Amino acid sequence: MSPARSLRIGTRASALALWQAEHVAELIRVQPGAPAVELVRISTQGDIRSDVPLWQTAGRSFFTREIDRALLAGDVDVAVHSLKDLSTQLEPGVALAATLPRADPRDVLVSRSGRALAALPRGARIGTSSLRRRAFLARARKDAVPVELRGNVPTRLERLERGECDAIVLAAAGLARLGLLERVSEFLDPASFPPAVSQGVIGVCTRAQDLTTQRWIGVLDDQEARLASSAERALLRRLEGGCQVPLGALATVHGNVLDLSASVCALDGSELLSVRGVTVATTGGAPRPMEAVALGERLAEELLDRGAGALIASEREARTVDEP
After folding, report:
1. For residue 312, what pLDDT is reported?
2. Structural domain containing residue 148
3. Is residue 194 included in any domain, yes or no?
4. How far lies 52's CA from each of 93, 97, 107, in Å?
5. CATH number, position 34
6. 73: burial class by Cβ within 10 Å (0-12, 13-18, 19+)?
């Protein structure tokens, strides 16, 4: 039985966000008896305040808060997010109803010359707005000069072409979804350049009590993406304290084993704390989400025991004093 009205999907208006929302819309439309679907474009603080460096923003909802509030207000029925932008503490009443299959989680380097990171000239200017990327760049190339870079993917590429930077770091998934993978100069190895938590995963939210909408969204949930993102988000939730953290993490599922590695890096690259652990399903098949969460929390505690809390606190204090 089809509902009387269409499902309204809330999304940002960037090219990448619209691609993701339309992808979810199409996955709904192909279901037998599915309702009509429409996209509702919503401006977020992240879109409006493009002059503010991301490291100066509190929490992880700079690009999602307004969409989730429209969801709770009943103005839309579905919210589509890049899961890496979504706070690890969801708004009360919001449910993460589906995690779509994960695209390539790696970061990539796009350089004007086409050179890889190691081959860039000394003092190369590398654009990014991410603390994590700045920290791991500093560890890989201490001579590199970080350049604050905000804007959507096409805007960042345009700024690169204008010569504002020698190279920029972006997510492989975003370039792939926009058909821009030919711009990649190098795929950065997660072993030395771990990606953002949940990078490459599209998260689809509904109102927690909206069982009608969840009927169409829940079937889109991918088990491996759910397990990996649950572990990574649990780790970040234990560490972040409401602010950006120079943390990279990547979880992978291999049969009944979930493998999670994570690193916290000083912003100048001088100190690195890394952990790795696995959980094996106790009931056969893949691990359960609660086992993934427990793994993430356990590795977060290991990082804290090794001094991650002090490292994160010192980086926050330094940014408050020294950053422009």
Report:
1. 85
2. 107-187
3. no
4. 29, 31, 22
5. 3.40.190.10
6. exposed
